[in-house]
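Re: [ENG-882] Designed sequences occasionally contain unexpected residues at chain ends

Forwarding the minimal case from QA. Structure tokens:
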């Protein structure tokens, strides 16, 4: 087919005509982000052939050892997005501080926050990884001072666009500009992302959940209750069998949930009391929460909707429960019942001896 599918640029222009709030420089910024993702897709797909696997040797602001591809992907975003005149500053998982646009380039009105490579423990074993991005408006300022990190600290409900690229068996871009969620597949022959998944919706019901079960002993009681009920299957109070998946890449998990429903949990746990969760609010939880919300799902900490959380720092961590709406609402109810002491049966010693692998 020579001229069948809509590419991402045409999609953005058409979207701009339909939606006056989507102004030209936002579309152009998204095109720059798309170029970053294509460059990263190229590096990821060449793997060992390009010598890009393995550790970089540095530790990032999270205290995690950076992979070479973490650093290369971060550079790709900076390189492709800094010169266009659409951004005032960028921030990323791999940079301790914000990156104001260098003075040789015009300064624009948006802020870009990104996780350049998500699921990077999967890189060296050739499994799925992704990139996540979030676009915010840069607050207006009377003087000409460059933006500060405080300008980034806006709740997720203020995002004007969010998306991710999934570097899987095929490379996909999933995007929202606040008017639904659209999926594009990279056609490598012509180097274009083509619209293959218009208007993605997450089914409100599911029989599939995703959680790192090795942390079970650290989970909070409402999560233990939820998972044990799923594991009890058709003989338990849920009356149906559940399936479990864990890819260790949030991009891959969220993509699966967009395709066939499900619930993803990286809850608050007691493993390290200094960390209220594993995932980062600004460049993991918020963009994914906007996508899930736009697809009819729900994203919560258990106690609050993620999109309503006021950030207090660039790299802050947060509990994440997202996906099929009815399951996330159930988990929110379990959190409320626990806070109100209404979950007494689930606090008994008998209940607490049940584990994922033993029920005696
Ligand atoms: P990153 O590679 O950007 O640090 O993010 C990895 C995140 C997320 O993608 C995934 O859901 C989670 O960490 C996996 O954590 P575990 O290794 O604890 O399973
Ligand atoms: Mn990540
Ligand atoms: Mn990362």
């Amino acid at each position: 087919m020579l001229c069948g599918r809509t590419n991402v640029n045409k999609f953005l222009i058409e979207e701009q005509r339909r939606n006056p709030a989507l102004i030209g420089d936002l579309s152009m910024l998204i095109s720059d982000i798309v170029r970053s993702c294509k460059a990263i897709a190229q590096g990821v797909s060449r793997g060992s052939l390009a010598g890009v696997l393995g550790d970089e040797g540095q530790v990032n602001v999270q205290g995690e050892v950076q992979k070479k591809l973490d650093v290369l992907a971060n550079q790709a975003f900076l390189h492709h997005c800094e010169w266009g005149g659409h951004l005032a500053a960028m921030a990323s998982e791999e940079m301790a501080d914000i990156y104001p646009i260098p003075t040789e380039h015009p300064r624009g009105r948006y802020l870009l926050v990104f996780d350049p490579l998500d699921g990077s423990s999967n890189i060296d074993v050739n499994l799925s990884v992704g990139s996540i991005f979030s676009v915010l408006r840069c607050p207006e300022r009377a003087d000409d001072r460059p933006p500060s990190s405080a300008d980034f600290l806006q709740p997720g409900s203020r995002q004007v666009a969010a998306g991710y690229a999934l570097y899987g068996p095929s490379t996909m871009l999933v995007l929202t500009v606040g008017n639904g969620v659209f999926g594009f597949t990279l056609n490598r022959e012509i180097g274009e992302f083509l619209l293959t998944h218009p208007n993605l919706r997450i089914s409100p019901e599911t029989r599939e959940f995703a959680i790192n079960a090795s942390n079970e002993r650290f989970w909070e009681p409402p999560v233990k209750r939820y998972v044990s009920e799923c594991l009890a299957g058709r003989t338990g109070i849920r009356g149906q069998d559940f399936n479990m998946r864990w890819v260790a890449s949030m991009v891959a998990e969220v993509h699966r949930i967009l395709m066939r429903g499900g619930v993803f949990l990286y809850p608050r746990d007691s493993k390290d009391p200094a960390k209220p969760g594993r995932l980062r609010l600004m460049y993991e939880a918020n963009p994914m929460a906007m996508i899930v919300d736009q697809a009819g799902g729900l994203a919560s900490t258990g106690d609050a909707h993620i999109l309503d959380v006021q950030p207090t720092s660039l790299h802050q961590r947060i509990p994440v429960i997202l996906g099929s709406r009815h399951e996330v609402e159930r988990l929110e109810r379990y959190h409320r019942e626990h806070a109100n002491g209404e979950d007494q049966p689930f606090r008994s010693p008998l209940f607490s001896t049940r584990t994922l692998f033993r029920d005696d």
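QA comment: On inspection the terminal residues look reasonable. Residues 8-197 form a domain with the Fructose-1,6-Bisphosphatase; Chain A, domain 1 fold (CATH 3.30.540.10). Proposing we downgrade this to a documentation issue.
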